[in-house]
Amino acid sequence: YYVRPCSRPTGADAACQAGDDAGNPIPTLVRQELEGTRMVERPLAEGVERLHFMYGLDTLPAPDGDGIPDRFVADPCDPTLLSQLGMTCAQVWAGVVAVRVALLVRSPTPIAGHDDSGKCYDMNGSGNCDPENDPTDFVCRNDLECRYKRALFSQLIQLRNVAYRRGA
After folding, report:
1. pTM value?
2. HEC string of 101-152?
3. pLDDT on residue 53
4. Gyration radius of the chain's alpha carbons
5. For 101-129, what is each residue's pLDDT tens digit?
6. Residue 8 C-alpha from the chain's centroid
7. Whole-angstrom distance, CA of residue 96 vs CA of residue 89
């Protein structure tokens, strides 16, 4: 799953170009599927501008086994995190008991009179939207970009098999 910058690429190589989507590219959530012996892109939802995952770890600093996330991280294999926890990447992944998924969705076309400037979208759920120091957070940067209406959707998903084994 990933976000492609346009909905309907017209190029032979399926890469998005400036003229796609009638000159107004619509970001689209797509996935790769195996079809026969090759991978094929399948569009899922137009207007998905960003997709972000945060992984809930059952660690404080080592797994306490209760199946409840003690912290959320963007990358369970971040070297700083591994050093801080004194664990390997595989050990940290084994402690992932939940995933927080955030989708930033925008209207397919600009909305006349709408101005999204000054609004910040906190993609990682930290409660502190700071796009200068956190590249996952989003603010529009120019007049055209700010004319789209946006909504942020977030869902926490418990990985039940892992969490239940740990006692939750």
Report:
1. 0.81
2. EEEEEECCCCCCCCCCCCCCECCCCCCCCCCCCCCCCECCCCCCHHHCCEEE
3. 95
4. 19
5. 999 999 988 999 999 988 999 998 888 88
6. 21
7. 11
